[in-house]
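INFO  loader      accepted 1 record
INFO  loader      residues=125
INFO  predictor   begin
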Amino acid sequence: MEFRIARHTNNLNPIIDFYTHVLGLTILGNFDNHDNYDGVFLGKEGLDWHLEFTSSDEQAQHQFDEDDILVLYPKSQQEYDAIKTNIKQNNITILKGKNPYWNKYGLMVKDPDGYNVVISNLKIS
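INFO  predictor   done
INFO  writer      dumping tokens
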């Protein structure tokens, strides 16, 4: 089984920049004007998951709360440290999560849509 999370955005280019240049994901594919939607697939090569972000003439109306979180698990200390450095270099604020678990085991930031993203240090080998 493959896994995809799809989300509509009003900020496609800032989303692409955030997830690739800050969090280190790769553009796996994209599309333009597919039934009036543009989109991008972001993830890591060889894995069975990816994120899809779309935009169109219709504005996104996000309604998530503090406990709605996308959690990413870097596989190495080097990958975790690189993301941490990118966050700092891009002046992205590290947030305190509502759930203290994520404050202990990761860094929480907001993406350009205001969605919480945790970079967890739990699975580092």
